[in-house]
Amino acid sequence: MAGIEIENLHFTYPSRNASTLGGIDAEVNAATFILLTGPTGCGKSTLLRTINGLIPHASGGKLSGSVRVNGTIVAEQPIAVTCQQVGLLFQNPEEQLFCIIVEDEIAFGLENLGLPSHEIDRRIDSALMQVGLPGFRNRQIASLSSGQKQRVALACVCAMQPQILLLDEPTSYLDPQATREILEIIRDLNKKLGVTVIVAGHQVNEIAPLCDRVWLMDTGELVSDLPIDQAFIDLKPYTRLGVQVPELAEVAAQFGYTERPLTLNHALRVFSTPIQGSNELRLPQHETPNGLIRSDGSSSEDESPDVTSASTPANPVDPDDVLAEAQRVVFRYPQTSVDVLKDISFQVKRGEIVAIMGANGSGKTTLLLHLIALLRPSGGQVIIDGQDTRRCKPRHLAGQVGIVFQNPDLLLQAATVAEEIAFGPKNFKLSRAEVEERLGEILPMFDLQTLKMEAPYALSRGQRQRTAVAASFSLYPDLLLLDEPTTGQDYYHLQQLMQMLDSTMKAQNKTVIFCTHDVHLTLKYATRVLLLHRGALIFDGCPDAAFADPERLEHASLVPPLTMQLRRFQNDTSPSSHENRPPRNR
Amino acid sequence: MIHLHPHTKIVLLAIVSCLVILLDSPIALLVCFLISLCFQASILPSWRQLRLLILFIGLGTWGLIYSQGIFYNQLPRTVIFTLIHKDVPVIGAMTGGVHLYREGLFHGAVQSLRFNTTLTISCFIIWTTQSRDLLLALVKLRVPYSLAFMVTTGLRYIPLIGSEAQTVIRSQRLRGFRYLRLNFLHTISGILNSLRPILTNNIRRATHLSEAVESRAFSADAATTSRTSLRELKTRRGDVILIATLIVCLLSVIGLKSIYFLYANGLYYASWLRGAYTFAREVL
Prior knowledge:
The complex is a heterodimer. Chain A is α/β, with parallel strands linked by helices. Among the domains of chain A are: about 240 residues, 3-Layer(aba) Sandwich (Rossmann fold), CATH 3.40.50.300; about 80 residues, no CATH class. Chain A has a six-stranded mixed beta sheet, sandwiched between helices. Chain A has a six-stranded mixed beta sheet with strand order 16-17-18-13-19-20, sandwiched between helices. Chain A is globular and about 70 Å long. The termini of chain A are far apart. Chain A has 21 helices and 20 strands. Chain B has eleven helices and two strands. A two-stranded antiparallel sheet of chain B has the order 1-2. Classes of the chains: A alpha/beta, B mainly alpha. At the A-B interface, helix 4, helix 5, strand 16 and helix 14 of A face helix 7 and helix 8 of B.
C-alpha cells in the first residue's frame, strides 16, 4: 500500500506573488486516515492537488520541494499515471459529473486508461457495489439526489482502484444523513481495503472519529500533525484560527477533562469519571438540559419555549405582526407529476429568524423561492407583507424582500465590491450622499472595508458570500432569504456572518429565513424551525423541540448534535429519567 | 427512427442539407419539409418540444418572407403594397420608397422551406440522440476525441447556462434594476453586467471540470492513441436502407439537374431524355 512523503513543498500560483504552500514537510504511512483542517484559503485544496499531480501539471505556477507517492516524485510522472495511485474527489458533485448515464461517468476514467471493455464492465459493477449503489448503472445522473451524485463521483474514483484517496470537502453539499453515508463508505475503504485517506473539510464532528491523525494548516503551512488522541488536547491553535473542533472534545476541555472524546460512547465513558472530587457532570454555561447553546446565552428553560408543531395549531398572532404567510401551499413543477410542496401553511412574524431544514430535495429551496414570488403556488397562496404573490411580480417585492441564492456568484455583477453594494440603492434612486452613507454602514458591518475596490469574482468563496449578502442587505429588506449559507463556508466566517445578521436584523425587527442542514447553526441562531420531509411540513416550532424527536429528525435526514444526544442518553439511563428534573447547569 | 445510428442521423442531415440547396421548385422543397416533419412526428415529441419547434419554424418563416418581401432586388418584381412612399420626406427620398414585392414573398417562402427542413431534421437529431452516442459517432468519423468531447460536453451545459442567466437577471430585478428604460445606455450596461457572473461562473466551472477529467486520466494524447470504449454502436438494417435511399435520392437529383443544365445551356441534348428534362424543370 502507498505511502506519501512531502518534503519542503512550496507552491505559488501563476500571476500571484505570495506562495500558497510555504514549506510543508510530512509523511503518511499506508492505510492512514487523515483529517486536514484549517481556515478557508489556508492551502488545503492546493496541498491535495499537489499530491495527485494536478499541480503542477494542470496548473502551471512555481513548485519546489517534492511529493513522493510510493517513492516516485509525482511532479515527474504524468497525471494519467498518478491518478491510478491517487484518486481525488471534489466538493461539488455537479461540477465533477459530466455524463448523462451513471455507467458512462464511471467508465470515462477506465476508457482513458485503455482498459478492455470486459474489465471496464467488471469495475463499474464493483465500484457501484462499493458505494452502495448496485442497480444504478443505467440511471440518469440528473435523476439522482445530491448524496447519490456524490456517491457516483466516489465510484468514479474507486473504479480507478487508487491506493490513496484524497477528498476535498466531500460532504459540504450534502445533508447530514448523506454525509454519514459517504463517510461510512470512506471508512470502509480505509479499514477494509487499506486505502490511505486524506479528507480536507470543516465538518470535524463527523470526520474526526474516523481519523488516525489530524493535520492543521494555516497560511500554507502545516501548523500541527498529531495523532487523533493528542490532536485536540490543546484547542488554542484551532480557536486562534477560527477552526471548528469536535463538540464533545470542546465540552471535555471546558470541564477540565484530559481525555478528548469524539464519539458518544467515548464521551459517556469519559464523563462518567468524576473530576477532582466532583461526582456530577457540569454542562458549560449557556448549555441547557437539551444541549441547546444559544448565541445570547439564554436557555430554552429561561424563555418557556413556544412549541408549535405542524399538527398543533399555533398561538394566535397579531395580523399586523405577520410578515410572510403560506396558506395551504401546493406546488408542482411543470410537466412533472409529483407535488414538491404539499399543503404547507405557516406564518412568519417580524423579527423572527427561521431555519428551513430537511433532506436534499425535500423542497426547501422551492419554498424559499415562493417567498419572493419567483415561483407561484399551484394551489393555496403565499402572502408577503399583505401582497398575494400570485398577483405580483418579483420586482414588486424588490427592496422589501432580498435573497441570496446557494451560488452567490450569480448575484455578483459589478466591477467592485463597493459598486455591488451600491447597485440596489442606486436602482431605487437614492441620492449619492445616501448611497455613500449606506456603503459606510454596510462595508464595516460585513468586514468588507478593505476589499471595497476589489473585483467581487476575484475574492475567496467566503468573501464572495459576504459580498452577496451585503448587496442584498443594502436595500434594508424586511425579509432576507438565504439559501444554504453554510455551503463551502468555514466555521469562523459562518459564525461571523450569522452573528452579524442575528444582531442587525433583530435590532431592526427584520426577518431572516434560511435553508440549511447545519443543526448547530440552527440551534444557535434560529428562533424557529420548519422541518420539511418530501415536500410536507412535518414540524413548525422552536429549535430545541424540533430536535427532541429522533424519528422526526431521521425523516428530515438530520442528526442532532452530539452534546444533545449525550444529554438525552444520560437522561434516559438515569434512574430519575421520568421525573421533571431541574437543569443540571451550575 | 429514435434508434437510428448516430452516423445515419449525421448523414441524413448532410444529405438533406445538400438536397434543399440543389432543389429550386417549391413543390419539391415542400415535399422535403413534409418528410422532415414525418421524422419529427415519428418520435412523438413532447408538448414542450412541439411548442419550441413551432416557435422556431414560425419565426424563421416570418423573418425570411418579410425580409425577402421588402428587400428582394431581382427583376422583374411586382409591387403589391407600399409601406413608405417615395415622396415621404427624408426616408422616402433616401430609399426611393419601401415596397412589398410579390416575387420577394414567393422567394422568402422558398427560402423558409429550405431553412425549416434542415431545422426540423436538426431538432430530430438533437432530441433523439444521447450525447454519449453522438460522442462515439463523432469519434468514429475521425473527429479528434478531445474535440468531440468538448462539443458534446458543451451541449450538455447549455440548459444549465440558460438557467444561470435567468437567475442573474432575476437577481438584478430583485435589486430594483429594470432593463427596459428609455435610457439605452442603462439597458446596455445592465446586459453587460449580467454577462459578467455568467462568464465568471462558466470559467470557474470549466476549471473544475478540467480538473475532474484530468484526475480521471484524460489527456488529449491518450485520447487519440490508447483510449478504449465500453460501448460500441451497432448499424442496423434500417440504417443501411435509409442511407442507401438518401444516397440514391441525392445522386438522382444531381444527375437530373446536370442533364437539365447541359440541355438548358445548349451543351448536350438527347430526345430520349425529354421526360427527364420536363421532370427536372417542373418538379426539381
